[in-house]
Structure formats: C-alpha cells, structure tokens
Design a protein that fits this description.
- The chain is α/β, with parallel strands linked by helices and 435 residues long.
- The chain has two domains: 234 residues, Spore Coat Polysaccharide Biosynthesis Protein SpsA, Chain A; 115 residues, no CATH class.
- Helices cover 41% and strands 11% of the residues.
- The chain contains 16 helices and eleven strands.
- It has a six-stranded mixed beta sheet, sandwiched between helices.
- The longest helix has 34 residues.
- The chain starts with a helix and ends in a 6-residue tail after the last strand.
- The N terminus is likely disordered.
- Bound molecules: manganese (II) ion.
- Manganese (II) ion (MN) binds next to loops.
Length: 435
C-alpha cells in the first residue's frame, strides 16, 4: 500500500530541479516513515499469520484438538475406490454408510435429524443481462441470510459438474455430489437461483416430512392423474440424504442428456406429459413422467406440498408485499414482545410469537401471511430472456420488491429497514419502542 501511494505522488512532481531534489528527499523520508508506520499497524496480525498454528500448541493441546474435531483414521465410504460423486453407480447401503460415518464423527453429527444443506448455483459464465450478476448476488445473499439465521449450510455451485447435464439438468449433479460431501446432512435443499426466501422467520416444517424423502411443490392429481407439466415444480425441492434418494436421482437423471437415447426418449415421453410448453425433455417433464409411471415404487415417499408457498408464484405475490409489510408492522406496534430488539440468532424464534396475529390468514392470494418462497419462474434474471408472458419491468420490479421485502426482515436485526421496497438504496433507522 505504501509503495502505491508514494509512486502515485511522484508522478505529479514539479519540473523545477532544485524543488524536485528537495521534494524527493523529504518525500523519501515521508515514504520511509509511512512504511514503518504502515508496517507497525499491520505487524501484529502479519506475524500471527506467518506462524503455523500447530507450532504454538503443546503436545497435550494437539491431542485434545484431535479428539474434539477429528477425522479419525478408520476407513469409511470415502476410502472405497468405487465411491462416485456422480451418476452411473449409486452407492449401496448408503443409509448404513452414513450412520457409520456419523458414529466416527460425533462432533459433526451432533444434533442430526434436521440438518439441511442448501444447494443452489448459476452458470459458469458471466450473465448476459447487464444487471444479471448483481441480481444473482442479491438472490444468493438472500439464501445466505436465511441459512445464517436458521443454521443451514450453503453450497453455491457455478460449474457444470457433468459435461452432459447442462441447462435445466445442471441442478441434479451438485445435489447428488452434496449428498456425498455432506453425510452429516439429513436433507439437501435445492433452490433455483431465481427464488427468494420471503419469510425469513419460517423454518422448514421438517417434522411434517419425517416419513417422506422428497418434498416438492405441486398437486397430486395433476401429477398422477393428469400427468401435467404444471403438476409439480422442480425449481425447489427437498431431498433426504438416503439410499432411496440416491436411487431416485439415478433414475431421474437417466432421462437427461447424459443418456445417449435422450432424444429418442424425448419423442416418446414429452407427448405423454400434458401442458408442456416446449418439446424438449426437461427435468420437470421427466419427474412428472417417472412419478406417474412408477407411483407404486416412489409415490409414498414423495410429499407433494401445496399447504404453503414452498414455491410461490411471483405474479401472485409481488403486488401484495407492501400491504403484507404494513400488516406485520401493525402487529409489531400492537405487541411490545414482537417490537423489541433481539439478536439475529434468535430472530427465527419470533415466528411462534407472531402466530396469534396471523390466525385466519394465509400466504396465498387474498391472504397477508408472508409467503415462504417467491419463485420468479420465467424471469430468467441472469440471461434477461424472460418469458414473453411477462414484461421486463414486471420481472425487474417484482424481484426488487421481493428482495427488499426479505432484506427488511434481515436489516431489522441490524436496526434498519427500507421504507420503499422499490428503492434499494435508501434505508432508515428502525424505531423499536414506538407504541
Ligand atoms: Mn426457477
């Protein structure tokens, strides 16, 4: 830093020689002084960084550290040379392998039963839309905020992990890999990049799904009877890290472009899926087809969720966000318990306190409960090639409102909020104690 500042200043020196010499001398002194000062400021942290951490630990401390957070030398499934992070050879006895691994890693497995890894991501290249990367950052920040509050892990993937699974199929390889990378996680939660968590307090009702392995938004009759493409939405799904899911994801992926017969399959399968807008065999058609064909095999472990906005349709949500904000603000004004300052770590617990004000309402059309997830299907924030049924302005303003609506719930814990959901730049300090 000192170097850059000094050389930058030298360029603007006067041409007068005597002045130049004098100036150079005094400037060099200043530079020397600056570098000493600069060094002394950063000296403490730099010297700490240079020392390898293990050298400061005694032998006793080292053994304590090993027992606290060990990766013990016992062999696990990771040592099996056949272990694969991708499709083709799903592991056998995965549930038992995970159980053994967790037994060997008790500190990592502690509290297991509700552990969730969020997997999300985007394409490897920069976005085509000039605001695409900015939107992706905000959409990702939203998921990171949610996970910081609720204690989930996040894996953001921006690589095609399988060369023959690009585009809509690209979500399956990272989900499959995350199941292996996180044996401690009970659930992998796929969230498309175009989704916004719009209720930061709500926790996934995992207890409700205790007998199921796949949770996905949709309608049973539309999947199993009508075989409609709109019967479910694969933009968001929760999949249990277990053998059943390994098997399902193997079969599901086999409909994708990695299968040399993919085009042939498309010709037979796509006509069977009703309401399909395009002739390609996408991951959503494949799942509708698979579940309807093999309901007996998979159906009883699939929870088709429509009891709340597990994947809320943005057009039915964004126009209500201001009025929902006002209703929530009213209940906070009426209740000192809801209005108080609190640490971010416990903010999720306030969802229960809020329930008495939400009786009789819901998160759908006409209701004023915060929708859990708002899904901007068809808005394509990265490419900007939104569906012709929408306008660029409706997608843009919808996303801005949803992101600011969600972020207000986060900023609240930091003492601020955005009074105007369409003005991302302006924040106000929050009045906590006004009656
Ligand atoms: Mn989507």
């Amino acid at each position: 830093m000192a170097k850059t500042m000094c050389s930058g200043k030298l360029l603007s020196f006067s041409k007068d020689k005597s002045y130049l010499v004098g100036s150079i001398v005094s400037f060099l002194i200043l530079c020397g002084l600056w570098s000493v000062l600069d060094h002394s400021w950063s000296g403490a942290s730099a010297s700490a960084m240079e020392k390898p951490r293990y050298s400061v630990l005694g032998k006793d401390e080292q053994s304590i550290n090993r027992s606290k957070n060990p990766d013990p030398p016992e062999k696990t499934f990771y040592d099996d040379p056949k272990l694969s992070y991708t499709f083709g050879s799903p592991p056998k006895d995965w549930d038992e392998k995970r159980r053994v691994w967790m037994k060997l890693h008790p500190s990592i497995a502690a509290g297991d039963g509700g552990k969730v890894v969020v997997v999300t991501g985007s394409q490897p290249q920069p976005c085509e839309s000039p605001v695409g990367d900015h939107l992706l950052l905000r959409l990702f920040k939203n998921k990171v905020d949610y996970c910081r509050i609720h204690g989930c892990e996040v894996f953001y993937n921006n690589a095609f992990l399988h060369p023959k699974m690009p585009s809509v199929w690209a979500k399956l390889p990272p989900v499959r890999a995350a199941m292996v990378a996180h044996p401690e996680a009970e659930w992998v939660w796929w969230l498309d990049s175009d989704t916004v968590v719009t209720d930061m307090e709500l926790q996934l009702p995992l207890e409700k799904y205790r007998n199921h392995n796949l949770v996905i938004n949709g309608w049973e009759d539309m999947v199993y009877e009508k075989k409609s493409w709109f019967g479910l939405n694969t933009g968001i799904f929760l999949i249990r890290n277990c053998q059943w899911s390994m098997d399902l994801i193997e079969v599901w992926s086999s409909f994708g472009p990695l299968n040399p017969d993919h085009e042939k399959l498309a010709k037979t399968i796509v006509p069977e899926v009703k309401d399909k807008l395009f002739s390609n065999l996408d991951e959503q058609s494949a799942l509708v087809y698979l579940l309807s064909k093999e309901k007996e095999k998979w159906g009883d472990k699939v929870y088709i969720e429509n009891g709340y906005s597990f994947s809320g349709y943005w057009l039915e949500i964004v126009d209500r966000l201001e009025s929902i904000s006002r209703r929530y603000a009213e209940s906070e004004r009426a209740d000192a318990g809801l209005r108080r300052r609190r640490s971010e770590k416990v903010s999720g617990l306030y969802a229960a306190l809020r329930e008495r004000y939400l009786k009789g309402t819901h998160d759908g059309k006409g209701g004023w409960r915060r929708p859990f997830i708002t899904h901007f299907t068809g808005c394509q924030p990265c490419s900007g090639h939104f569906s012709p049924s929408y306008t660029a302005e409706s997608c843009r303003s919808g996303m801005e409102r949803a992101l600011n609506f969600a972020d207000n719930q986060v900023l609240r814990n930091y003492g601020f909020f955005r009074p105007d959901l369409l003005n991302s730049s302006f924040v106000s300090p929050l009045q906590f104690d006004s009656p």
